[in-house]
Design goal:
The complex is a heterodimer of chains A (107) and B (119).
Chain A lengths: L3 E4 L2 E4 L5 E7 L7 E6 L6 E5 L3 E2 L7 E6 L2 E6 L9 E6 L11 E5 L1
Parallel strand pairs in A: 2-10
Antiparallel strand pairs in A: 1-3, 3-8, 4-5, 4-9, 5-6, 7-8, 9-10
Chain B lengths: L2 E5 L2 E3 L5 E8 L8 E6 L5 E7 L6 E3 L7 E6 L4 E6 L8 E8 L6 E4 L3 E5 L2
Parallel strand pairs in B: 2-11
Antiparallel strand pairs in B: 1-3, 3-8, 4-5, 4-9, 5-6, 7-8, 9-10, 9-11
Classes of the chains: A mainly beta (107), B mainly beta (119).
Chain lengths: 107, 119
């Protein structure tokens, strides 16, 4: 199975900050990398697919980049509703494994 | 409205069985691969099972292989997960999710149903 490793595991930031979360795959996954946002008690929501494509309805302050094994999710200017847990996921081969999550908290 | 609605969760004793359902609406269900993903309270997301669009091909995580069976009824727009020989470590929120044909990612998720395995 492909292992996905996110860093950091948690992050404190303020409204208006620019933040970056990284995700590393244990082998090359081309651009088959997706990012999800999950708020407490809710189902995850797709933010970014194919490493850099913004899902419909997702604000443009979210962006993704990378290919191969190293990927990043960037939020250009944090808004209050962005404080949540973020997961990366590879869809290159089953099982479509997830990273362990990055909890983004208000400083 | 495009949505997935799970049902069937609950409290079951170790060794027992449950059948989860996921009702799809607002899209052509038979065009999409479907998945079950679970999340242990306070923990991350784990892929459980997948089924292709016509139900002819399935896959399972090693942890549930031989105990869980995924199936679908495209005429009724419903996905199922039959869970047998349940263990305490199967306790989790179970989500069904749609694989987007363009995105190749889980673009639609259900609200989740809680399964608790305990005596």
């Amino acid at each position: 199975d492909i292992q996905m490793t996110q860093s950091p595991s948690s992050l404190s930031a303020s409204v208006g900050d620019r933040v970056t979360i990284t995700c590393r795959a244990s082998q090359s996954i081309s651009n088959y990398l997706n990012w999800y946002q999950q708020k407490a008690g809710k189902a995850p929501k797709l933010l970014i697919y194919a490493a850099a494509s913004l899902h419909s309805g997702v604000p443009s302050r979210f962006s993704g980049s990378g290919s191969g094994t190293d990927f990043t999710l960037t939020v250009s200017s944090l808004q209050p509703e962005d404080f949540a847990t973020y997961y990366c996921q590879q869809s290159y081969s089953t099982p479509y494994t997830f990273g362990q999550g990055t909890k983004l908290e208000i400083k | 409205e495009v949505q997935l609605v799970e049902s069937g969760g609950g409290l079951v004793q170790p060794g027992g069985s449950l059948r989860l359902s996921c009702a799809a609406s607002g899209f052509t269900f038979s065009n999409h691969w479907m998945f079950w993903v679970r999340q242990t309270p306070g923990k991350g997301l784990v892929w459980v099972s997948r089924i292709n669009s016509d139900g002819s091909s399935t896959g399972y995580a090693d942890s549930v292989k031989g105990r869980f069976t995924i199936s679908r009824d495209n005429a009724k727009n419903t996905l199922f997960l039959q869970m047998n020989s349940l263990r305490a470590e199967d306790t989790a929120v179970y989500y069904c999710a749609r694989l987007g044909n363009l995105e190749y990612a889980f673009d639609i998720w259900g609200q989740g149903t809680m399964v608790t395995v305990s005596s």
